[in-house]
């Protein structure tokens, strides 16, 4: 019975007492250099525990963890190095970000993505991209967007109007974070309502996802997906390099073939040009000489021959030049056709490569979405298991309370029975004691009565005897002849 009571009491203690993990909230602040992460952490904790100042380089170079309390709740904050830091490489910053899982074991509940109110530039976009590369896309499902420098807002203007509705990228980021965002004015540590609003968003998110945190298992899955994607990208890059080498080789072969064709053409042109010139010059000259030899004098004939030769030479050169131009044009046209075909093939290959890249990106996105869906399903399953465990604990607690009530009833009945038995025993003892005390008195009385009776008998006998003697003496005195015996 006592062992059962101890077990039930231990169960009651474990059910009623909130665990430290559920009472504690672990937060990680993320953002670019100068966004106001450290000031936001100071505002949450209500004191200046992190260094914060205006600087082009990040004040926080390594992860810095501090614990505090806000209205009875334990808070653990981790300030991270600024993304796009001027003194650290992206790999070093990502390595520091991933330390948050081990520094806030078993993992952070929420990521606070800190963005300064103002123009959403390419740096902010790169910051979000670095967060996704370091922690994975499913980290946004555990995030809250914190807009700092709320004092810069004009009166009557909200963050939704000036940031979310006015910028598609900000709206997309807030949507990826489940629509969770809040505003911080870090000029004063006394404003506790902004902290309460932020914690209300965190509580609502934790209630929806069953209180899960970003664990090392999620980080391992992210690293596996990134490793697989990196291997596929390297393989695709190798294929592109091989294709580029093949294209360069084809281009060199094409240029070499074109050069050989041109050299052969020039060589053939040099060889055929003098022979054709001589043939053209000799043939018309001989005919003219035969036809006009009788008609003109020798002087005039020589001049005529010279003119004819000049005209023939000019015509020949013009024809040869025209032929060369036509041949060169034909050759260039052929080469142009070849180059066009080669460019078309190269463009086709580039389009194929582009399609492969797009297909790979789509596959990676599908894989990432599938991982995100699996993670969300795991979160929902974890939530269902948590609810089932809570229900079981509730049933156990009810059974324990019922068992406790039964034990108390049994104990009460047992105590009543014991009390009754005790009273009965006391009564019996009292009766026995009275009986024991009464028995010796009766015997004494009897003894005393017997003694008294014997005394009376003796006295009575003595009196009777003395009376008879006196009576007989009196009779003798009177002289009566009788005697009483």
TrEMBL record:
Cross-referenced PROSITE patterns: G_AIG1
Keywords tagged on the record: Coiled coil, GTP-binding, Nucleotide-binding
Coiled-coil blocks: 219-253, 397-435
Matching CDD domains: AIG1
Region called Disordered, residue ranges: 269-372
All copies of domain AIG1-type G, residue ranges: 22-223
Pfam families reported for this sequence: AIG1
Gene Ontology MF terms in the entry: GTP binding
Biased composition (Basic and acidic residues): 269-282, 319-338, 345-372
Entry-linked Gene3D superfamilies: P-loop containing nucleotide triphosphate hydrolases
Family: Belongs to the TRAFAC class TrmE-Era-EngA-EngB-Septin-like GTPase superfamily. AIG1/Toc34/Toc159-like paraseptin GTPase family. IAN subfamily.
Name by which UniProt lists this protein: GTPase IMAP family member 9
């Amino acid at each position: 019975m006592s062992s059962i009571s101890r077990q039930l009491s231990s169960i009651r203690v474990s059910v009623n007492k909130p665990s430290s993990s559920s009472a504690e909230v672990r937060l990680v602040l993320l953002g670019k250099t100068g966004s106001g992460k450290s000031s936001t952490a100071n505002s949450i904790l209500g004191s200046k525990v992190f260094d914060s100042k205006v600087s082009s380089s990040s004040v926080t170079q390594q992860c810095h963890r501090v614990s505090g309390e806000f209205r009875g709740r334990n808070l653990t904050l981790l300030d991270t190095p600024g993304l796009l830091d001027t003194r650290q490489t992206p790999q070093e910053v990502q390595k520091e970000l991933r330390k948050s899982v081990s520094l806030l074991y078993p993992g952070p509940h929420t990521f606070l993505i800190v963005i300064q109110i103002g123009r959403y530039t390419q740096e902010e976009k790169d910051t979000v991209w670095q967060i996704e590369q370091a922690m994975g896309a499913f980290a946004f499902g555990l995030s809250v967007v914190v807009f700092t420098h709320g004092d810069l807002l004009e009166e009557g203007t909200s963050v939704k109007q000036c940031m979310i509705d006015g910028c598609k990228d900000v709206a997309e980021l807030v949507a990826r974070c489940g629509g969770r965002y809040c505003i911080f004015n870090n000029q004063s540590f006394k404003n506790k309502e902004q902290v309460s609003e932020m914690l209300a968003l965190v509580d609502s998110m934790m209630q929806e996802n069953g209180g899960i945190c970003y664990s090392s298992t999620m980080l391992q899955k992210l690293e596996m997906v990134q490793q697989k994607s990196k291997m596929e990208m390297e393989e695709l890059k190798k294929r592109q390099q091989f294709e580029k080498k093949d294209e360069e080789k084809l281009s060199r072969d094409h240029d070499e073939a074109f050069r050989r064709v041109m050299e052969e053409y020039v060589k053939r042109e040099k060889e055929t040009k003098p022979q054709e010139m001589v043939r053209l010059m000799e043939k018309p000259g001989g005919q003219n000489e035969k036809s006009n030899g009788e008609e003109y004098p020798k002087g005039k004939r020589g001049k005529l021959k010279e003119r004819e030769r000049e005209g023939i030479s000019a015509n020949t050169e013009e024809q040869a030049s025209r032929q060369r131009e036509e041949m060169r044009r034909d050759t260039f046209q052929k080469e142009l056709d070849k180059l066009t075909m080669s460019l078309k093939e190269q463009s086709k290959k580039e389009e194929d490569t582009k399609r492969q890249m797009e297909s790979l990106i789509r596959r990676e996105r599908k894989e990432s979405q599938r991982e995100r869906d699996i993670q969300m399903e795991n979160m929902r399953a974890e939530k269902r298991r948590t609810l089932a465990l809570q229900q079981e604990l509730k049933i156990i607690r009810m059974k324990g309370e019922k068992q406790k009530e039964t034990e108390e009833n049994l104990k009460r009945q047992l105590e009543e029975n014991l009390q009754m038995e005790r009273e009965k025993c006391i009564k019996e003892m009292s009766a026995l004691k009275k009986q024991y005390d009464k028995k010796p008195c009766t015997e004494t009385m009897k003894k005393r009565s017997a003694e008294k009776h014997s005394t009376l008998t003796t006295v009575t006998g003595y009196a009777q005897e003395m009376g008879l003697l006196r009576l007989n003496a009196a009779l003798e005195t009177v002289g009566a002849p009788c005697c009483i015996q």
